[in-house]
Amino acid sequence: MKDLNWFEKFLFFLNSLFAVALLFSYLLPYIPPGTFALLSVFSLGVPFLIIVNLIFFLYWLFRLKKQVLLSFLVLLLGFNHLSSIYEISSSEDLNSHENVIRVLSYNVRQFNQYGWSGDGEIPQKIAQFVKEQDPDVVAMQEYFKGELDIASSFDHRYIKLKEENSEFGLAILSKFPIINSGSLDFPTRSNNNAIYADVVKGKDTLRIINVHLQSFSVKPNMDRLEKDETKKVFLGMGQTFVRQQQQMEMVMELIQQSPYPMVILGDFNNTAYSYIYRDLKDQGFYDSFKEAGNGFGKTFDLSFFPLRIDFILAEDSLETLEFENFEIPYSDHYPIKATLGLRKK
Hints:
The protein has helices spanning 6-25, 37-41, 46-62, 68-77, 79-85, 122-133, 148-152, 230-257, 275-282, 288-292, and strands at residues 100-107, 137-144, 156-161, 168-174, 178-183, 193-201, 204-212, 262-267, 285-287, 310-315, 318-325, 336-342.
């Protein structure tokens, strides 16, 4: 510290605070929200902590100061966290693989039924996007029942509205036969849900699980965190994570009962640094983005912040050959697509 001027000492003090915060965040996926709800909220800030520590690392490296070791060691300890925010993958030759299936997940925000966007052609643009991508299976969250043109382009579909008189829900659209389907019907106090469909392609059957876990009553953006509202907002977000844990427990029961290889995809309203994400990995699922994605993999429109809360998770019996995310302005979420194939035995 003697070789630092007063400004650099102050910077290193800040660096130490952010490094300790990031180090602590590595424990968050192991703490059930039901045990300590408020702690779970901080998992949303892990990408920010990673970026800040990277900036400090590069600063000290450029200055050739030994303080570079602090952020370097903390980032090294959490290398798996680093790869969850940014990924570099090589391309696969799809021609060398047989029996692939392309799945796409998209929270379509009710096809702009409430006019959040001034673009009146959002439904047509989403339909055109889906047509261009030509997926075998599409899982949609916040699906609006009036947009039947998109659904009718698939021979097989399972659409589940939240309630009998509701206009919104979840949809699984498939080019291939659906031999079984169902809904988990999260408790009525929640507008969210999970559905599944068993899709048959050739001699193989896959269970596609489309989830839309508990949403935030307020979006987690800094504009809402005024001084007089901070406590209320954070407490509400903490309870959201508790309900997500309860909903994921219902999904886990469905997973354990499945006789088929599974893909779980959708809007998790949570990050790769959360308890529910780690729980799914412990069940034998892996993140398709981390296997074949590139870049930040941003799936939610939150200014410059690379928030990834939509996932395609597959079992180890499936191989991700390609992964893409599309930053198109037709919803507050961005669609993601994975090309999957059965691993050679």
